[in-house]
């Protein structure tokens, strides 16, 4: 296990990126969580979601983590690889540059808006194909791919073990699967004691996706599948000392508001918490951390 938290890992973002802030897709426990990310297609401004993903992916820590996850695929020229939940295709050109013209790169996403954007961006690469699809039923024969990846997808999926099994199904013996996801419940803030309990409720109890702690449990889920061997884990502590970054890219402020709408805290408690957070920002003492995980394995079947 490798953990990174050094002076090179600070999340830095230009203030102009504040326009990329989007509201996370809240849900009740009874919602059809599998389709919540499709709300992008129904939103008034789908491009805002695309811009959010683009800007978040430009952060130094995310770039370093993605490079690691790409290495774990162990790609070579001529190989076939798919990015499940590819979004707007941020990683497809990188994959193509490794497998080159003799290889095949596929991107699949449930959002039509994301897929159309990715198609446009990849139109100059004839061996890259992007399409709409469901991660529970990937439309390829068994043993088709040399490598399969997904990033920050399983947190939105009701049955992540089924998706892992589907990824295994389409991967050749000896191939690789690499999964990256976040542990939202690992969020920590340098918070004053008088609002610690309110903060704990906001971080631990607010529901805005199917599996907030999925990153922490990725290794265990992959180890449960008997066809995955040589399971390896890479953990990175992301941190920022900017409240605007925590709000815009890590949904801190929105999670506080959701705690009110979900009946977990009162409006007064939210204001008390928010004032404490903003006071720390003014004093220069605000620190926010969250953990990101990549787990990889080899297919043996």
UniProtKB/TrEMBL annotation:
It comes from the Eukaryota. This is Methyltransferase domain-containing protein. CDD domains: AdoMet_MTases (cd02440). Residues 76-199 form the Methyltransferase domain. SUPFAM superfamilies: S-adenosyl-L-methionine-dependent methyltransferases. It holds the Pfam family Methyltransf_31. Transmembrane segments: none annotated. Gene3D superfamilies: Vaccinia Virus protein VP39 (3.40.50.150).
């Amino acid at each position: 296990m490798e953990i990174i938290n050094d002076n090179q890992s600070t999340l830095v973002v230009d203030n102009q990126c504040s326009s990329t802030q989007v509201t996370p897709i809240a849900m009740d426990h009874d919602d059809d969580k599998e389709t919540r990310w499709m709300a992008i297609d129904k939103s008034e401004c789908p491009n805002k979601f695309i811009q959010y993903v683009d800007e978040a992916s430009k952060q130094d820590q995310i770039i370093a983590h993605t490079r690691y996850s790409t290495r774990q695929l162990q790609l070579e020229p001529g190989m076939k690889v798919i990015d499940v939940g590819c979004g707007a295709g941020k990683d497809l050109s990188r994959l193509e540059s490794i497998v080159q013209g003799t290889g095949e790169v596929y991107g699949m996403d449930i959002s039509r808006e994301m897929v159309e954007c990715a198609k446009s961006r990849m139109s100059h690469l004839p061996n890259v194909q992007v399409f709409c699809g469901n991660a529970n039923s990937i439309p390829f024969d068994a043993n088709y791919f040399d490598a399969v990846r997904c990033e920050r997808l399983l947190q939105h999926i009701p049955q992540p073990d089924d998706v892992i099994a589907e990824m295994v199904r389409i991967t050749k013996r000896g191939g690789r699967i690499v999964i990256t996801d976040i542990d939202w419940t690992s969020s920590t803030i340098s918070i004053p004691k008088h609002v610690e309990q309110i903060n704990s409720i906001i971080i631990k109890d607010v529901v805005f996706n199917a599996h907030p702690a999925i990153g922490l449990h990725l290794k265990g889920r992959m180890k449960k599948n008997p066809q995955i061997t040589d399971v390896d884990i890479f953990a990175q502590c992301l941190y920022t000392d900017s409240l605007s970054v925590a709000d815009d890219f890590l949904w801190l402020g929105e999670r506080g508001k959701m705690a009110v709408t979900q009946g977990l805290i009162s409006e007064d408690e939210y204001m008390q918490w928010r004032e404490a957070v903003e006071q720390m920002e003014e004093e220069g003492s605000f620190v926010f951390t969250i953990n990101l995980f990549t787990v990889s394995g080899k297919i043996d079947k």
